[in-house]
Amino acid sequence: MSLDVPTAVLESAERGELDDAAFLAVVRGSLPYAWEVVSAAVADGQARPEAPFGEHEVPPPSEAERGQLLRALASNAIRGAMERHFGVTLAFQNCHRVAAFAPAAVDSTVYREFVSPRGQVLNQSPELRDC
Predict the structure, then answer these.
(1) Quick one: which of 119, 110, 102 has its CA closest to 49?
(2) Residue 100 domain flag
(3) What is the pLDDT of residues 62-75, one digit of tens each?
(4) What pTM was computed for the model?
């Protein structure tokens, strides 16, 4: 299961009353490592305004954390809510490299290179083969 959803949140969703704030609280509580990684990528971009994007490249400490990150970034709902919350567009390579781009940068050469097949291939290494 990807998320630990409290009964009150489930009941709200059943009534059609789920907002981003409630959903993000569930995401943050259920996937704390993924939240930490995305927060770090966003903070990196804010700390280096001259950089085209912020990123986090540290491999997860365990398979449990890796699973959190994969679940968060593979889910359109989770990823989209996090992007709206942080005001970024997320990009993902391998099992751990997360980039946070300003939405205006999505039409940039840097973004297109990051998400390209070439960018993916150039970011490979033997130790990341099974991630």
Answers:
(1) 102
(2) yes
(3) 999 999 999 999 99
(4) 0.88
